[in-house]
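2024-03-11 09:14:02 INFO receiving multi-entity request
2024-03-11 09:14:02 INFO entity count = four
2024-03-11 09:14:03 INFO echoing inputs for audit
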Amino acid sequence: MTTSLAEENYLKIIYRLCEGTKEDISTNSIAELTNNKAASVTDMLQKLAEKGWVTYQKYQGVRLTKIGQNIALSIIRKHRLWEVFLVEKLGYNWDEVHEIAEQLEHIESETLINKLDSFLDFPKIDPHGDPIPSQEGEIPELGYLHLSEVKLNETCTLMGVAKDSAVFLQLLTKLNLSLGARLEVLEINTFDRSVSLKIAEQEPIFISHEVAKNILVKV
Amino acid sequence: MTTSLAEENYLKIIYRLCEGTKEDISTNSIAELTNNKAASVTDMLQKLAEKGWVTYQKYQGVRLTKIGQNIALSIIRKHRLWEVFLVEKLGYNWDEVHEIAEQLEHIESETLINKLDSFLDFPKIDPHGDPIPSQEGEIPELGYLHLSEVKLNETCTLMGVAKDSAVFLQLLTKLNLSLGARLEVLEINTFDRSVSLKIAEQEPIFISHEVAKNILVKV
DNA sequence: ATTAATTTTTAGTCTAGACTAAAAATTAAT
DNA sequence: ATTAATTTTTAGTCTAGACTAAAAATTAAT
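2024-03-11 09:21:47 INFO inference complete, emitting structure
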């Protein structure tokens, strides 16, 4: 069965919302991320349920079926592989690739994405540290922590980010925070949970809890 | 102003039809290539005229404006650069890339296509020998002949094809006819204008006028 | 346990881009 | 120069995917 662009975008966003929780996903939360009105979302959920990609109970929210999950994973796989291509081969920065990958992820061709995978030498993570699902929809569990969970005086390595927005990524770049950086937590302020960090050979820097929450690390 | 997918496909096809002739383009000829009905074409032509991309006189056919031409050329540029990418970098054969490039040509990003161009080392022709328009919409005139126009006993080099369909390209591959091949016209049958050809060190082969017409050569 | 607030759904509309059937122009044929 | 054939346009419809406004469920608050 074939998927329209609109359907693909809904599935992708429902997948993202499912990831965080065991609960069913609310109409409103989908409306927010798709930038549509709740009424439009209800419409689409009924279509997706009809096609067997979500289970949907009126007023009770949705959940992806196995098939729906696989479609979502294949879109995410394409998105992340294209991001690797854009950064590794075309020389983009990590904060510039999201919008273009949003378009490229809808290109339909099994062979294309596998040839691309091979051309890129089968990368396991994208430029933001997010894991790339396999062709079979396997997604390696990396077990990263949020930097906000790291204890005082511990040292960790920056492995990824939990948010792809350009402004956030540009901020990290400005602070000299990039994948692989070694970080030591020097101070955690109880007032606002902001954090003082030492990066390798540099002067300490200062980040808000909001930033720390969106940085993924390995201890 | 922004172009929809449908609009881009119309502009591309009108461009192709304009190329052959000085005449205005008929509604029916567009309908045939877009696989739409004439009534739908009329509808769209009115929209395109409204946007200033074609000049359109009821019952008298259409013609691209300068702006329309530039849009069409930018789509063709993208199509051909992606084809080079697919063949050179991903290892596709020349008969496999058309459908994928039809999708990729609609990806919207100025920087992307220029970075791709540079990554591919600024190719001048695509895998079928078609010239790649520059960013400014300049398209080098290559002055190729159709093999069907070459005189008896003349020798020429295969530079391109006038048709991208997979079956045609597969036939050429089977006959060992690829870009750069040296060809000598051994015989031209007056009955059906079929042609006997010698390719470099090989046994002579035999092709129909229809095939000869779609092969582009330099003498 | 009601009532109020919030969320979700239904009903009805709109737009882009397709369609069919019929009308209007144009072109070809006597 | 008419008439016939062909091409193109108009008028009216349909579908996907959005919307608003109002109705119906659910959840929160007294």
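2024-03-11 09:21:48 INFO post-check: The domain at 5-64 of chain B is CATH 1.10.10.10 (Arc Repressor Mutant, subunit A).
2024-03-11 09:21:48 INFO post-check: Residues 26-28, 38-39, 41-43, 58-59 of chain B lie near DNA strand D (CB under 10 Å from a C1').
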